[in-house]
Specification:
Layout lengths: L3 E6 L3 H9 L2 H7 E7 L3 E3 L18 E3 H4 L5 E5 L2 E5 L4 E4 L3 E3 L2 E4 L3 E3 L7 H4 L6 H15 L5 E5 L3 H14 L8 H4 L2 E5 L11 H13 L2 E4 L4 E5 L2 E4 L4 E3 L2 E4 L3 E3 L3 E3 L10 E3 L11 E3 L4 E3 L10 H19 L14 E4 L5 E5 L2 E4 L1 H13 L4 H15 L4
Parallel strand pairs: 1-2, 1-9, 2-5, 6-19, 9-21, 11-12, 11-17, 12-13, 20-22
Antiparallel strand pairs: 3-4, 6-7, 7-8, 10-18, 14-15, 15-16, 23-24, 24-25
Helix pairs in contact: 1-9, 10-11
Length: 393
């Protein structure tokens, strides 16, 4: 049988789950699959922030792709994609050139610094466990010497969740705070008029109140025009001094050069049709943070939840395409928004209804445990979380 060469670029939510969602028998019979990733590891990003306080083990946040992929069914190439040639149907990596019949582009995103001078150089990004280690070391080193000033730029879901988590880290237990911990400050800086700008104002205000009760300072409508070592310079002349600056102010797609040029939106995301095929190409799919659906029926966020949903459709559309069947549209339905804001706290929205309190926090934990890519670890992770949250362990 002449197998079709399926090349998946990226071993994250979009890429890995496209592979997982392909039917087993079809994978074996009809496909010759290669996954290219520059990192050896799968990063379960929604849980990264939990690793700051050790509620989840590092090995459950980031683990080798080779441990979760059946090597008999797929070739894993650890290499960086340098360019894609859609006419020649080939991809250049720093290891070799790989040809394909079907291509899936799922290369994710990187921090967007909006060309602000010094932003990349003087701030920390938060994408992997290495970033967590660097930030956590910096927090404990500074705290051992003096009170700490942390600035988090960007009050989207990652920024607010991180602020709440760092507030737990810098002020751990009610009666054992050191003077340095007590006088430490965390500031959340946001360009929009409200934090969590995509949520209704009422919910955003509730989230702000929860964070402020944890001692976090919120500064909205604050535009940064320069970052220097230990300082943020706002338009209007104000300067915020800071020991640690963390950048969570949005992402842009991480794309190599593509020939011929493809349609992209103003954030650089590749435009796809509703079948998630790159416009103009019947054998090239793009999903996750690198892509945007032209004429989408509903708003599709750059999130793990959306990338997972898209991966299911890309997998079934590849099968349908090879078997000559009609493809399906991507009809993204959010399962809900759940934003944890420290232990037992959170805000969210399900079916258009605003929710808050422990229910959000618990639902968020359950959803991510359920989605964890190694089924046999799910129960253990849930159990650890329960014990560590209730301080039983
Ligand atoms: C701290 C944090 C918390 C988050 N929390 C949540 C959450 O609670 N809920 C939620 O829904 N979403 C969350 N997200 C967002 C979510 O993780 C992303 O939207 C999701 O991972 C996107 O999937 P993806 O496949 O597009 O990219 P990724 O999962 O990032 O995968 C991209 C892959 O491409 C590889 N790659 C990149 N460039 C190259 C290259 N040139 N060559 C080879 N390989 C390359 C990478 O190594 C990686 O394997 C969070 C993100 C972060 C950073």
């Amino acid at each position: 049988v002449n197998k079709q060469k399926l090349l998946i670029l990226g071993g994250g939510f979009g890429g890995f789950f496209t592979y997982v969602n392909l039917p087993k028998a079809f994978k074996a019979k009809a496909l010759d699959i290669t996954i290219v990733s520059k990192s050896e590891d799968f990063v379960f990003a929604p849980m990264i922030i939990e690793s700051f306080t050790g509620e989840i083990d590092d090995k459950d946040v980031q683990f080798p792709l080779r441990d979760i992929i059946n090597k008999k069914q797929v070739r894993i190439v650890i290499a960086e994609v340098l360019s894609i040639n859609l006419t020649k149907q080939s991809v250049h990596t720093n290891a070799r050139i790989i040809e394909y019949d079907y291509l899936v582009i799922a290369l994710g995103s990187q921090a967007n610094y909006y060309d602000i001078i010094g932003a990349k150089k003087y701030s920390h990004a938060l994408k992997s466990l290495d970033d967590v280690t660097v930030i956590a070391n910096s927090v404990s080193n500074t705290l051992s010497e003096k009170p700490l000033k942390i600035s988090i730029v960007g009050a989207g879901p990652t920024g607010v969740e991180l602020a709440a988590k760092l507030s737990e880290l810098t002020k751990p237990k009610r009666f054992s705070r050191t003077a340095n911990q007590l006088r430490s400050t965390i500031e959340l800086i946001e360009a929009n008029d409200q934090i969590l700008a995509y949520l209704p104002l009422k919910l955003s205000r509730r989230a702000a109140k929860i964070l402020e009760l944890q001692g976090i300072t919120i500064r909205t409508a604050a535009l940064i025009n320069k970052v220097s070592k230990h300082a943020l310079h706002l338009s209007g002349g104000r300067v915020i001094q800071s020991d640690i600056i963390i950048w969570t102010a949005g992402v842009r797609p991480s794309l190599p050069s593509i020939t011929p040029i493809v349609n992209q939106n103003k954030n650089g995301q590749i435009k796809t049709d509703q079948y998630l095929r790159v416009l103009g190409y019947k054998n090239v799919f793009a999903l996750g943070d690198v892509a945007t659906v032209e004429k989408a029926v509903s708003v599709i966020p750059a999130s793990a939840q959306a990338a997972y949903g898209a991966s299911k459709l890309v997998a079934s559309n590849i099968v349908d395409s090879i078997q000559g069947r009609e493809l399906q549209f991507f009809n993204y339905r959010s399962k809900g928004i759940f934003i944890p804001l420290g232990k037992w706290k959170g805000v969210g929205q399900v079916a258009g209804i605003n929710i808050h309190g422990p229910v959000v926090w618990i639902a968020w934990k359950l959803i991510y445990v359920w989605r964890f890519p190694i089924p046999k670890r799910r129960l253990i992770i849930g159990w650890h979380w329960l014990l560590r949250t209730t301080n039983l362990w």
